Structure to design on (267 residues):
């Protein structure tokens, strides 16, 4: 009986984690498609004014450095969004280790660059939202930099278990911006009105809470994931699976909301 409970818990844990992964990767691919169609396409056509579809200050006439950094930021956003989740696929790691290594180098290098470009956009150019949002996304950048550093360090030292753990922390940090949009749209789907924030200034308690929820909390959830994975206790695996299942349902609804209300109308 004990053995059976253990087997069921292991299966549940594995399947819910796979469900989360598939939903997340599909959602991120749609986000990458949006970035490609909005920013890459308009850049290729020389139609820089189109950058301002989401916000009127993304392309600023005369601000060459700012425009260049924004362009670099969104260019890298596609690369990291498409490559990141693939790094976690065991089949690719075992069957195509060369791909994993090359794509890993590109990913880590891009992680540093996108964060530095993002910090410039936040603090030098000025971003959408208030001080709390700026501090929130700065934490996101710092978490990315720390996770990228340790993921590389342990890969070079061939400490694979530690490398894997830091890589998962990194993926979730790199997904923060995407999670922000998904859970923002989940909130909008639920309320059908801007509740808890001012849509003009894009500030308010809901957005402050959301920043913590998407930039900080996923790191604790990753820690819980590894605890559940390595734990012999079926109840820990059940608890984590249930939590991740609920989160994944939220991601499904939020992604549909983002596609219909945010990404498709802009491209
Ligand atoms: C690592 C994953 C990241 C991705 C995939 C990403 C993606 C994007 C995209 C697509 C935009 C254009 C806005 C839109 O069309 O939605 C954007 C804008 C921006 N990003 Fe990022 N970004 C990432 C990380 C960061 C980080 C770490 C920071 C800050 C440190 C940052 C700061 C900004 C800022 C300031 C803007 C301009 C929008 C605004 O004023 O709020 N990003 N990003």
């Amino acid at each position: 009986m004990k053995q059976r409970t253990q087997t069921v818990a292991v299966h549940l844990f594995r399947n819910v984690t796979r469900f989360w992964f598939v939903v997340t990767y599909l959602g991120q691919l749609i986000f990458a498609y949006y970035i490609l169609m909005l920013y890459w396409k308009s850049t290729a056509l020389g139609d820089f004014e189109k950058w301002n579809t989401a916000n009127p200050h993304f392309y600023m006439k005369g601000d060459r450095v700012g425009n260049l950094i924004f362009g670099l930021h969104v260019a890298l956003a596609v690369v990291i969004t498409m490559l990141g989740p693939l790094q976690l696929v065991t089949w690719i790691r075992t069957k195509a280790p060369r791909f994993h290594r090359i794509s890993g180098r590109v990913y880590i290098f891009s992680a540093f660059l996108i964060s530095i470009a993002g910090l410039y956009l936040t603090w030098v150019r000025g971003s959408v939202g208030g001080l709390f949002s700026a501090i929130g996304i700065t934490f996101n950048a710092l978490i990315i930099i720390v996770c990228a550093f340790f993921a590389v360090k342990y890969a070079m030292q061939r400490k694979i278990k530690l490398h894997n753990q830091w890589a998962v922390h990194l993926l979730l940090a790199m997904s923060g911006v995407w999670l922000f949009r998904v859970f923002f749209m989940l909130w909008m789907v639920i309320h059908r009105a801007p509740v808890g924030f001012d849509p003009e200034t894009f500030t308010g308690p809901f957005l402050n809470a959301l920043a913590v929820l998407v930039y900080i909390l996923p790191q604790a959830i990753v820690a819980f994931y590894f605890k559940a994975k390595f734990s012999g206790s079926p109840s820990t695996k059940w608890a984590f699976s249930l939590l991740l299942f609920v989160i994944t349902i939220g991601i499904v609804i939020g992604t549909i909301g983002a596609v219909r209300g945010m990404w498709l109308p802009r491209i």
Summary: The two ends are 55 Å apart (CA to CA). The mean pLDDT is 97. Residues 2-44 form the longest helix (43 residues). The pocket of protoporphyrin IX containing FE is lined by residues 35, 54, 73-74, 77, 80-81, 114-115, 118-119, 121-122, 127-128, 137-138, 140-141, 144, 174, 177 (CB under 6 Å).
